[in-house]
Design a protein that fits this description.
This protein is α+β, with helices and mostly antiparallel strands. It has one domain: Porin, CATH 2.40.160. Helix content is 16%, strand content 41%. It has four helices and ten strands; from the N terminus they run αβββββββββααβα. The strands form two sheets. An eight-stranded antiparallel β-barrel has the order 1-2-3-4-5-8-9-10. The longest helix is centred in the first third of the chain and has 23 residues.
Amino acid sequence: MVSLRKHIALLSILITAGCSTSAQNWEFGGMIGASNYHGDLAYNIVPKESHMAQGIHIRYNFTPYWSYKPSIMHCKISGSDANFPEYQMRNLSFQSDIWEVSNALEFNFVPFGSRILSKNFSSYATLGIAVFRHNPKTEYEGELYTLRNLRTEGQTSETQYGLLQLAIPFGGGVKYNINKNIVLGWELAWRKTFTDYLDDVSAVYPDLDELRDQRGDLAANLSDRSWEMDGVGAPQSVAGDERGDPAMKDFYFFTGITLTYRLTPITCWPKRKREIIWK
């Protein structure tokens, strides 16, 4: 009987340890940092156009090397021709809030995770897929206006861009175990999009007279804003002139600090029953 109790007790310990290991594989946490964009209104990254970015995520460490991380992020991006002397005459600008839902895989370059407590630090690479919503706006005479409905490049119903888009997140970062439950990290991840309209700028100028007739003065005024520059006074574009570069799709990215909490081990066998078995 004593031997049987010992075997049952040993089995219960193994079951509990197994369940604890599984529970330790799950983490939840968040990220706070900065966001920026690369596109027709920013061919180089402009630090002053960086904005606050934040999000939440969960992480499942299914091996010491591989993790799965779904997340929800929110950020703001913006760009302006005023930042580049050679484009100041075009005089376009935008800002947009982005909401993103993503699924990503992380590859740790050294074994790292809840079951490898001897490894407190690792760098990693990440790759995934995301769905995001954007909505470019611009400031004009002290007010913010949504640009898509103005069809500033003369878009038709067939050529109008969508606000819901796909992106490929890719990048990397580092992780550090502060203790058995807390993981501190830093990540930089780009989003390669499949749209050239994060900034509402892509192709060519429309016929401004036609645009004015179809969409009103506001649409024409915001399609070509060169008239606002000192000493100009009238739009400088001709229908068909290059307004953007449709060959290069837009990017946006996040960088920031991540903090995750590794779930404490669950107990599969009630504590009271374990005490009885040991007696």
